[in-house]
């Protein structure tokens, strides 16, 4: 498979002082051509710096960057055939939709008729036929987002970059636009690097997720890999709000978690481990406790979210956070219940 983006041992230090801390610390990764990779992590992890180095807006301190097989390490943004879509959209308020979209083509010297037809095709690709003459102020947030996307697409870049593109939208529009971005990416076979801090967004749009923390890559793989097989406490806790509990891997292949025992989905070495349990992995039950299968719990906090309840329970493991889809039955505060573990949503991280 052809390489869309390749980072080879890239470091980034701001300033010329050799003692200044590194924002990015020797990272390497590959984004295959025609795929979408999300760079995910908390604030300050280095993900935006990494995206800006792909765009040519920042130069690496050391290492090599390749785009579509070409070494672009020392090239500026205009020489990289890369388009970047920013959080703020950055539309020209005095220009119509079609003028905004064809602006980059005009600056590149493309003939007016050709630029207009290419801009119209780009607007068609994002579902904005008939909006040519409107001003940005006459559009909704989601429509402005689509114009910004069309403006990036019309340049036919080798790589398309997104920097927190959905953070200004409400929850429903975020879901719709992430589906739109993913559909366009797959239909046009675009190579995309996508930065976000939102785990659910990353899971929904990505072929590959690159999780960063403190300037290094904590783990990378498919969304399923990251969610089901985290390799560290950080990744387990960051992906999907998992809570971590100390446990013990036993010689018989099972894991002991307080009064619970279960068989992990992947073999782990005997000894201390951390067990990451996602809120949806707990099942709430009544009745007599089953040896090794049930955890007695007392409800101390409850919140109704429409499609689910969020519960906090006190247990011998400490406070446990549970998301329950059983909205027809609300538990009263102080309720004594049993919690059991589902097969999905439980991961074991080696080393306690």
The helix-and-strand class reads alpha+beta
Approximate shape: globular
Order of helices and strands: EEEHEEEHHHEHEHEEHHEEEEEEEEEE
- Helical proportion? 10-25%
Q: If you had to describe this structure to a student in words, what would you say it looks like?
A:
This protein is an alpha+beta fold and 352 residues long. It has 2 domains: 3-228, P-loop containing nucleotide triphosphate hydrolases (Rossmann fold, 3-Layer(aba) Sandwich); 241-350, RNA polymerase II/Efflux pump adaptor protein, barrel-sandwich hybrid domain (OB fold (Dihydrolipoamide Acetyltransferase, E2P), Beta Barrel), CATH 2.40.50.100. The protein contains 8 helices and 20 strands. The chain has helices at 47-55, 97-107, 112-125, 141-153, 171-188, 199-205, 223-228, 233-238, and strands spanning 3-13, 22-32, 36-40, 62-67, 70-71, 82-85, 159-163, 192-196, 208-213, 216-221, 243-249, 255-257, 260-262, 271-277, 282-285, 295-304, 309-315, 318-324, 336-341, 346-350. It has a 6-stranded mixed beta sheet with strand order 6-7-8-3-9-10, sandwiched between helices. The chain is globular and about 75 Å long. It starts with a strand and ends with a strand.
């Amino acid at each position: 498979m052809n390489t869309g983006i390749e980072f080879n041992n890239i470091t980034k230090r701001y300033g010329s002082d050799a003692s200044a801390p590194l924002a990015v610390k020797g990272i390497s990764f590959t984004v295959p051509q025609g795929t979408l990779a999300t760079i995910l992590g908390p604030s300050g992890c280095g993900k935006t710096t990494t995206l800006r180095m792909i765009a040519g807006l920042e130069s690496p301190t050391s290492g090599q960057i390749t785009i579509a097989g070409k070494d672009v390490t020392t090239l500026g943004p205009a020489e990289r055939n890369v388009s970047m879509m920013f959080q703020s959209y950055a539309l020209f308020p005095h220009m119509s939709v079609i003028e905004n979209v064809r602006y980059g083509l005009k600056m590149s010297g493309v003939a007016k008729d050709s630029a207009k037809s290419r801009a119209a095709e780009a607007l068609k690709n994002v579902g904005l036929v008939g909006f040519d003459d409107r001003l940005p102020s006459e559009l909704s947030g989601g429509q402005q987002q689509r114009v910004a996307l069309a403006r990036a697409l019309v340049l036919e870049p080798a790589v398309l970059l997104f920097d927190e593109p959905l953070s200004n939208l409400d929850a429903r529009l975020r879901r719709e636009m992430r589906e739109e971005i993913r559909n366009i990416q797959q239909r046009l076979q675009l190579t995309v690097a996508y930065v976000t801090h939102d785990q659910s967004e990353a899971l929904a749009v990505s072929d590959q997720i690159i999780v960063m923390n403190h300037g290094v890559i904590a783990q990378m793989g498919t969304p399923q890999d990251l969610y089901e097989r985290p390799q560290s406490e950080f990744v387990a806790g960051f992906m999907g709000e998992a809570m971590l509990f100390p446990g013990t891997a036993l010689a018989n292949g099972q894991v002991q978690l307080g009064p619970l025992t279960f068989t992990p989905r992947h073999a782990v070495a005997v000894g201390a481990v951390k067990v990451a349990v996602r809120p949806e992995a707990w099942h709430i039950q009544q009745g007599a406790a089953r040896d090794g299968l049930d955890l007695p719990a007392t409800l101390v906090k409850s919140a109704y979210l429409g499609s689910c309840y969020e519960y906090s329970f006190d247990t011998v493991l400490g406070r446990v956070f549970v998301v329950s889809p059983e909205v027809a039955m609300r538990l009263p505060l102080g309720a004594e219940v049993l919690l059991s573990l589902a097969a999905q949503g439980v991961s074991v991280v080696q080393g306690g």
